[in-house]
Design brief:
With 385 residues, this protein is mostly helical. The protein folds into 2 domains: 179 residues, MFS general substrate transporter like domains (Growth Hormone, Chain: A); 206 residues, MFS general substrate transporter like domains (Growth Hormone, Chain: A, Up-down Bundle), CATH 1.20.1250.20. Helix content is 85%, strand content 0%. The chain is built from 15 helices and no strands. It starts with a helix and ends with a helix. It is a multi-pass membrane protein. This is MFS transporter. It is found in: Cell inner membrane.
């Protein structure tokens, strides 16, 4: 588990480069916010297909380690095309090829961490926390470095991180547990479950502004006069803030119903984006990023746990795939492309205000599901009495 935790810590440095600083690099290349949004939105399009595909390949050969090693090598080679492509068309093609190999690594890591922790009597959160710490430390460090040497040299940092990640991955061990594959039949059964469909719709509305913020925050902060260091610090605040919340989520889930927790997270999401829409001082945005703790940290853990509670164990991989396809796929496509366009023509404040409304719609759906579930439970108790 220690080796896997260290791998999480280092690999999340590469995720910082892709998620936080690539938009700044694209801006350096001369792309407009609308164009950057389209380029970033192209990545989740391919991820929707590549993540389950590589999961199926991993299931077939019963190895996560070897697949991760292969994906790291491909991500290293194809990542260079992203850093050195000079036109929007080339960047889109490069991002599609790059993310075909890069995007599946995290889900495979999460799957391995879940199984390894179960086999060793630990819990997934104790491993996942190291990813958050890696993201936090790298956001601050990389922001400082590129502030000194320039964002055009981001590729050097990326190469170093991927090589170290590859070396660490060599020491990992595969889980002994057999993995249940994702199947088309499984998806058909899952989507016949109204609770599953309902939570995915809610996830979509709540995730759209979240994914929009992932791709647009750096550009928004730069438009307000922020430095690269402040951009990095903002992501450091968000990543560090989620650590203690993830650590105590198992206690919160014992005290409160899962749908209630998801509703609380959705409500705070709506408040968070509304604040972003009115803030004009970069440092205040840095501080407000700490709301990541009461939004994403609660939302992610509670939602995955809720899906696990309404989906049969043999369909869990299918249920989780649907969640990730919605959160990191469809929501990213809509959030990045629409966010970039609206930011360019109407300003960053508007996209966050609209994001607040979107999160509120998703929260209302979850709250409706919660109240309906409570009513059904009360009815059952009344009948038994």
């Amino acid at each position: 588990m220690i080796k896997l935790s260290v791998f999480y810590f280092v690999f999340y440095w590469s995720m910082t480069i892709v998620n936080v600083f690539l938009p700044l690099l694209f801006g350096y290349k001369g792309l407009t916010p609308a164009e950057i949004g389209v380029v970033i939105a192209s990545a989740p399009i391919i991820a929707i297909f590549s993540q389950p595909l590589w999961g199926i390949i991993s299931d077939k050969y019963q190895t996560v380690k070897k697949i991760i090693l292969l994906l790291l090598v491909a991500s290293l080679l194809l990542g260079m095309s992203v850093f050195f492509s000079s036109t929007m068309i080339l960047l889109i093609v490069s991002m599609l090829l790059f993310q075909f190999f890069m995007a599946p690594i995290q889900p495979l890591m999460d799957s391995l961490a879940t199984n390894i922790s179960r086999e060793n009597g630990g819990n997934y959160g104790s491993i996942r926390i190291w990813g958050s710490l890696g993201f936090a430390s790298s956001s601050l460090a990389i922001g400082f470095i590129i502030g000194k040497i320039g964002v055009q040299y981001l590729w050097v940092i990326y190469i170093i991180i991927i090589i170290i990640s590859f070396i660490l991955a060599l020491s990992l061990s595969d889980s002994k547990a057999a993995r249940k594959p994702v199947t088309a039949e499984g998806f058909k059964k899952a989507f016949k479950n109204p609770k599953y469909v309902g939570i995915l719709i809610a996830v979509l509305f709540i995730a759209i502004p979240h994914r929009m913020n992932d791709s647009m925050l750096a550009l928004y902060m730069k438009s307000l006069g922020a430095t690269e260091g402040q951009v990095g610090l903002a992501w450091t605040f968000s990543a560090l803030s989620e650590v203690p919340v993830i650590a105590i989520m198992y206690l919160l889930m014992r005290k409160l119903p899962l749908l209630a927790l998801i509703s609380i997270a959705g409500f705070f999401y709506s408040i968070r984006w509304l604040l972003y829409g009115f803030i004009t001082e970069p440092f205040l945005l840095v501080i407000t990023q700490a709301m990541h703790s009461v939004t994403f940290a609660i939302f992610m853990v509670a939602t995955l746990q809720y899906i696990a509670s309404i989906i049969p164990p043999e369909m869990l991989a299918t249920g989780q795939t649907g969640y990730f396809a919605t959160f990191t796929g469809i929501a990213s496509i809509i959030g990045s492309s629409a966010g970039g366009y609206l930011m360019q023509y109407y300003g960053g404040g508007l996209i966050y205000k609209l994001g607040s409304i979107s999160a509120l719609i998703g929260t209302s759906i979850v709250l409706f599901m919660f109240l309906k579930e409570r009513k059904q439970q009360s009815k059952v108790l009344t009948q038994h009495n």
